Amino acid sequence: MPLMTRLSRTLLCAALAFASSVPVQAADEPAYGAELEGFAYPYPVQRFAFTSQGVKLQMAYMDVKPAKPNGRTVVLMHGKNFCGATWEGTIKELSAAGYRVVAPDQVGFCKSTKPQHYQYSFQQLAANTRALLEAIGVKEAIVMGHSTGGMLAVRYGLLYPELSQQLVLVNPIGLEDWKALGVPSLGVDKWYERELQTTAERIRNYERSTYYVNTWKPEYEPWVQMLAGMYRGPGKQLVAWNSALLYDMIYTQPVVYEFPLLKMPVLLMIGLKDTTAIGKDAAPEALRPKLGNYPELAKRTAQSIPKATLVSFPEMGHAPQMQDPAQFHRALLKGLVR
Question: pTM for the full model?
Answer without folding.
Answer: 0.91
